[in-house]
Write a structure and sequence with these properties.
It is a single chain. This protein has 416 residues and is of the alpha/beta class. The protein has three domains: 2-200, Amidase signature (AS) enzymes; 216-265 and 323-414, Amidase signature (AS) enzymes; 267-317, no CATH class. The protein is 37% helix and 14% strand. It has twelve helices and eleven strands. The protein has helices at residues 2-23, 31-39, 81-88, 125-132, 149-155, 189-200, 237-252, 266-284, 297-308, 311-331, 361-365, 395-408, and strands at 26-29, 50-54, 92-97, 138-143, 158-161, 181-186, 223-226, 256-259, 337-341, 370-377, 383-389. An eleven-stranded mixed β-sheet has the order 1-3-2-4-6-5-10-11-9-7-8, with helices on both faces. α1 runs antiparallel to α2 (31-39), α8 (266-284) crosses α9 (297-308) and α8 (266-284) crosses α10. The protein is globular. The N and C termini lie far apart (42 Å).
Length: 416
């Protein structure tokens, strides 16, 4: 088995050398460490799988620099919880991937593998691009607003955001403790499900009706709410078409679909998210704020806004979030998931911004699990991702529905 792991790492390094001059997804490649880890990788479910690690997440012996000169050269003493879990399952860290500054908005050098003059999204930009470029089958990310879902959509890969609190953030440099969540990026939902099972034992559940192997009515037991997101963003026509086509395909497969309507006040949730994030970020990065000359303008503005937020307003925002979460969890006991756009459209042109996270803000405030399902393209060929939002106690069900949804998205020749 050692030969298998070593060969997988060698192939990842070959592919990295081939793509990195253009994509710039990696901060640090630990080739010698990866080869050594491959030789001793346990024979687990992920044996020999090389993976990238977003550079806010600790890997023992490597720097965790968070896209900022303020953290340059800081060496991690031990692996983050998630890195440790993956190593135990046989996976091998290849190195650190680019993050935006402290996982906020200021871009790094990474480019979108589908079109290098377009953003890969952020803040998990390097991880999404490394998977999309075929360097690694798995990369680690995180989400506080839209830091994983958006780059997954822009780069055309699958993404998973764990429910807030479900996976430990030990070894992560966080921004907002009430909102931070670890996550994964893979080429497809099937691989995503394999990795999640290796991390915490959650199995993707095949809907009962799908076990009958009736492709016409495979999803009879599934109930979905379709959310266009247009009250929060100017959603691109191609994205709206992709959502409509997927909803129709799910309905043909037997799923019950209905519009979300105004059952969830997403603009209020997005505003509440912004209050919580700013207040907590100002305290999480208080030491860094003492060196404003070393911070980008967007991050300085966030921290300044957080310092000016009154504690009463912050506590009111948390109360509002708790009330909304209870209401939405009640809604999600009667339906399986909410299906909507993962981003307003394809990756924007240019590298000086990473796109808006607004379509993720409501769900991140509520701490819900999210799976980004890839496969659609706009007329120019750029990826479009959809997100499935589910109940934190039913992640297996969410993964099973996501896997089936991915199979219903037409192949490249039929997309448009």
């Amino acid at each position: 088995m050692t030969a298998v792991a070593t060969a997988a790492v060698d192939e990842a390094l070959r592919r990295l050398d081939e793509t990195e001059p253009e994509i710039r997804a990696w901060v640090r490649v630990d080739a010698d460490g990866a080869r050594a880890a491959a030789r001793r990788a346990p024979d687990g479910p992920l044996h020999g799988m090389p993976f990238g690690v977003k550079d806010i997440i600790d890997v023992a012996g490597l720097p965790t620099e968070c896209g900022s000169p303020l953290r340059r050269g800081r060496i991690a003493a031990r692996d983050a919880w998630l890195v440790d879990r993956l190593r135990r399952a046989g996976a091998v860290p290849l190195g650190k991937t680019v993050t935006t500054e402290f996982a906020y908005l200021q871009p790094g050098p990474t480019r979108n593998p589908h079109r290098p003059d377009h953003t890969p999204g952020g803040s998990s930009s390097g991880s999404a691009a490394a998977v999309a470029a075929g360097v690694v089958p798995l990369a680690l990310g995180s989400q506080t607003a839209g830091s994983l879902t958006r780059p997954a959509s822009f780069c055309g890969v699958a993404g998973y955001v764990a429910p807030v609190g479900a996976w430990s953030t030990r070894g992560f440099t966080g921004l907002s403790p009430s909102l931070d969540a670890p996550g994964l990026l893979t080429a497809d939902v099937a691989t995503l499900a394999t990795v999640i099972e290796a991390v915490d034992g959650t199995k993707a559940e095949v809907p009962d009706s799908a076990r009958a192997l009736d492709p016409v009515r495979a999803l009879d037991s599934v109930r979905l709410l379709v959310w266009p997101g247009t009250e929060l963003a100017d959603v691109d026509r191609a994205m709206r078409d992709a959502l409509d086509r997927t909803g129709e395909a799910l309905a043909r497969a037997g799923a019950g679909t209905d519009g979300l309507g105004d059952r969830i006040r997403t603009p209020e949730l997005a505003d509440t998210h912004a209050v919580v994030m700013a207040y907590e970020a100002a305290r999480s990065l208080a030491t860094e704020a003492e060196h404003p000359e070393a911070l980008s303008a967007p991050l300085r503005e966030l921290l300044d806004r957080g310092r000016k937020t009154a504690q009463d307003d912050y506590e009111a925002a948390l109360d509002s979030a708790r009330t909304a979460r209870a209401r939405v969890l009640d809604l999600l006991t009667g339906v399986d998931a909410i299906l909507g756009p993962a981003a307003p459209g394809p990756a924007p042109h240019g590298l000086d911004a990473t796109g808006t996270p607004v379509l993720s803000r409501p769900w991140q405030l509520l701490g819900l699990p999210v799976v980004t399902v890839p496969g659609h393209r706009d007329p120019s060929g750029m990826p479009l991702g959809l997100q499935l939002v589910g109940h934190p106690d039913r992640v297996g069900r969410l993964l099973g529905i996501a896997r089936h949804t991915e199979t219903l998205i037409p192949g490249p020749a039929a997309r448009g």
